[in-house]
Specification:
Largest interface: A-B, 65 and 59 residues
CATH superfamily of the largest domain in chain A: ATP-grasp fold, B domain
CATH topology of the largest domain in chain A: D-amino Acid Aminotransferase, Chain A, domain 1
Helix content of chain A: 25-40%
CATH class of the largest domain in chain B: Alpha Beta
Order of helices and strands of chain B: EEEEEEEEEEEEEEEE
Distance between the termini of chain A: 58 Å
Number of domains of chain B: 2
CATH architecture of the largest domain in chain A: 2-Layer Sandwich
Oligomer: heterodimer
Number of strands of chain B: 16
Radius of gyration of chain A: 23 Å
Helix content of chain B: under 10%
Radius of gyration of chain B: 22 Å
Number of domains of chain A: 3
Shape of chain B: elongated
Largest sheet of chain A: 8 strands, antiparallel
Largest sheet of chain B: 8 strands, antiparallel, barrel
Strand content of chain B: over 45%
Strand content of chain A: 15-25%
Distance between the termini of chain B: 53 Å
CATH architecture of the largest domain in chain B: 2-Layer Sandwich
Structural class of chain A: alpha+beta
Number of helices of chain A: 15
Strand order of the largest sheet of chain A: 14-13-10-11-12-15-22-20
Number of strands of chain A: 24
Structural class of chain B: mainly beta
Chain lengths: ~475, ~160
């Protein structure tokens, strides 16, 4: 039995993990670094312990010991796919809520994982340790230990390869502490479709259907959904079988994800296996009724899966939009600041996994993802309408963000028709900006009323002022 | 009636407006239009019989206005003061586009650079980005060093 869990993470995912733990009657422990001292995730746990870095496994294990936690949930990113944390947990007798160290190591090595999958009969994309033949271009340079688009470069010409490898290697070294990179065949206009898998310590493995993650910017996912509009029942069954074969090939224990790319011809290739909970896991939860964190904990406790493949059903449609502190109009540069106004949407079929609240500080130390807005409805078109409604109700001022951009993307006719692939945003780059720069008269009026209320500020950059409740100088209260 | 004139910069164009208001009822003058409005409460206006819910956030002269599901940005122009608000622009100044850490400075004082040649490599949110020279010329000043944490808009390198 697990009684107390430390989440070795921050932001929305730490909070999302705590939510399930509370439902299960399990005590919660947060860790935080100095920039996060006042972060929402710290206040959302029963206890919190200061650490120097989310990337120091020894420190995290000491914190767990200090708090008397019997398990550590790594979340995603940081040390979730680094064997140093799972190894340190083993040495300390603390349960690591994730797959076995050996699985993380083999699947984290993108070359070994592909060799293994090839042997298990799962189709894979060709790749090279050294330089491919000129005829193989375009290619992708990827980090051996990476994910999330960091340390990744598209190379169109052989002459650009050396420089791309050097830059990717530097980025990978900083992000993952491993600067090795490799080169992979680049499939044009692919869809990115992944399958959720669950495996227990008793040799059972199932897939929990797909997630379509084709809408990406800078190789990072922005919008995810399930079911994928591209999959027929036949293709879904074949890919699901491949995902389960992949899980069984490594004796997978806990929750994981098998990523595939799917070409316009419907052929699919194993891309990589993510040995952790994914950012986009909520869409799977919304359509299957499972709580994946609960399943992770039950598996970590040694329980067998409480269902078989044939018990699982997809119902309705779910879409997730990632809310980032960034400016789509300016190459998606991250923004920082204080969340001055925060009025998130709600209502039936709307779920928000958020790491912020009003007055939260958004700094540049960590990933700019603030929250995930998830909707569920009976059909894809209803889910799109629900997401449009939810995004248009989402008020977030003080930090520039991608909410309006997300609304434009999901409102695009080709998104509505399900004609999406990983180049959707490059093809529709007009979506990066509003269709019109026109500011409605009412907005000018609102701004004019609020500016009338306060004297001109000419001071420092910190002199921010929020006027949520505007009234004029004529109103004496 | 109190009257107040304001100047707004929206994108490239400047707009002059005037507000007249008394007891919560007023008229908003913009261009040739005179639009009656009612202040119904906090963050609540009525214009032409329609309810408007809004939120405004102000940071110096930058305003973000959430209205009807979208966020708009406006800059207030304070007459006489607005020259100070202008950014580096078409000069030879290379400024930080976002807050972050300077990784490398690719040039030295006295170097000749081409337009678009990378001069500074920065890291922000764990992503690398390179800042190019805005014009060809000679590097006359370097204001940053590798490892330094800089704010958005910080002057890093000057080219003449």
């Amino acid at each position: 039995m697990i009684r107390k869990v430390l989440a070795a993470n921050r932001g929305e995912i730490a909070i999302r993990i705590f939510t399930t733990l509370r439902e299960m009657g399990i005590h919660t422990v947060a860790v935080y670094t100095d920039p996060d001292a006042h972060a929402l995730h710290v206040r959302s746990a029963d206890e919190s312990i200061r650490i120097e870095s989310y990337l120091q496994p020894d420190e995290i294990v000491s914190a767990a010991r200090q708090a008397g936690a019997d398990a550590i949930h790594p979340g995603y990113g940081f040390l979730s796919e680094n064997t140093s944390l799972s190894t340190a947990c083993e040495a300390a007798g603390i349960t690591f809520i994730g797959p076995r160290t050996d699985t993380i190591r083999r699947m984290g090595d993108k070359l070994e994982s592909k060799r293994l999958m090839e042997k298990a009969g799962v189709p894979v994309v060709p790749s090279w340790d050294r330089n491919p033949h000129d005829s193989e271009f375009p290619v992708l340079v990827k980090a051996v230990g990476g994910g999330g688009g960091k340390g990744m470069r598209l190379v169109e010409e052989p002459s650009q390869l050396a420089e791309a490898k050097a830059a990717a290697s530097r980025e990978a070294g900083k992000a993952f502490g491993d600067d090795r990179v490799f080169v992979e065949k680049y499939v044009r206009n692919p869809r990115h479709i992944e399958f959720q898998i669950l495996g227990d310590a008793h040799g059972n493995a199932v897939h929990v259907f797909e997630r379509e993650c084709s809408i990406q910017r800078r190789h990072q996912k922005v919008i995810e959904e399930t079911p994928s509009p591209a999959l027929t029942p036949g293709l879904r069954a074949r890919m699901g079988d491949a995902a389960v074969a992949a899980a069984k090939a490594v004796g997978y224990v806990n929750a994981g994800t098998v990523e595939f790319i799917v070409g316009p011809d419907g052929r699919f290739y194993f891309l990589e296996m993510n040995t952790r909970l994914q950012v986009e896991h909520p869409v799977t939860e919304m359509t299957t009724g499972l709580d994946l964190v609960r399943e992770q904990i039950r598996i970590a406790e040694g329980n067998p899966l409480s269902f078989t493949q044939s018990d699982l059903r997809q119902t309705g449609h779910s879409i997730e939009c990632r809310i980032y502190a960034e400016v789509p109009e300016e190459q998606f540069r991250p923004d920082i600041g204080t969340v001055a106004v925060y009025r998130p949407p709600s209502g039936a079929g709307v779920r928000l996994d958020s790491g912020i609240e009003e007055n939260s500080e958004v700094g540049f130390h960590y990933d700019p993802m603030l929250a995930k807005l998830v909707v569920w409805a009976g059909s894809r078109s209803q889910a799109i309408h629900k997401m449009q409604r939810a995004l248009s109700e989402f008020v977030l001022l003080g930090v520039r963000n991608n909410i309006d951009f997300l609304h434009r993307v999901i409102s695009h006719p080709e998104f509505g028709e399900g004609k999406i692939d990983t180049h959707f945003l490059e093809r529709h780059s007009a979506l990066l900006r509003p269709a019109t720069e026109e500011v409605p008269v009412e907005a000018l009026l609102a701004a004019s009323l609020s500016s009338a209320r306060t004297p001109a500020v000419t001071g420092s950059a910190t002199a921010a002022f929020t006027d949520v409740w505007t009234s004029g100088p004529w109103r004496i209260s | 009636m109190t009257g107040r004139e304001l100047h707004w910069n929206k994108g490239a164009s400047e707009t002059q407006v005037r507000i007249e208001e008394s007891g919560g009822h007023g008229i908003f003058h913009i261009g040739e239009q005179a639009i009656p409005f009612v202040v119904r409460g906090q963050g609540w206006l009525e214009v032409n019989g329609r309810n408007i819910r809004y939120y405004v956030h102000r940071d110096r002269n930058e305003y973000s206005i959430w209205i009807d599901g979208r966020t708009y940005r406006l800059t207030r122009i304070q007459k006489g003061a607005h020259a100070l608000e202008q950014a580096g622009g078409a000069s030879g100044e290379v400024r930080a586009l976002m807050p972050g850490k300077v990784l490398r400075v690719e040039v030295a004082v006295g170097d000749t650079v081409k337009e678009r040649q990378p001069v500074v490599i920065m890291e922000s949110m764990k992503m690398e980005s390179s800042l190019p020279a805005p014009k060809a010329g000679a590097v006359i000043a370097i204001e940053c060093a590798p490892g330094q944490i800089v704010e958005m808009g910080t002057l890093l390198v000057t080219i003449e």
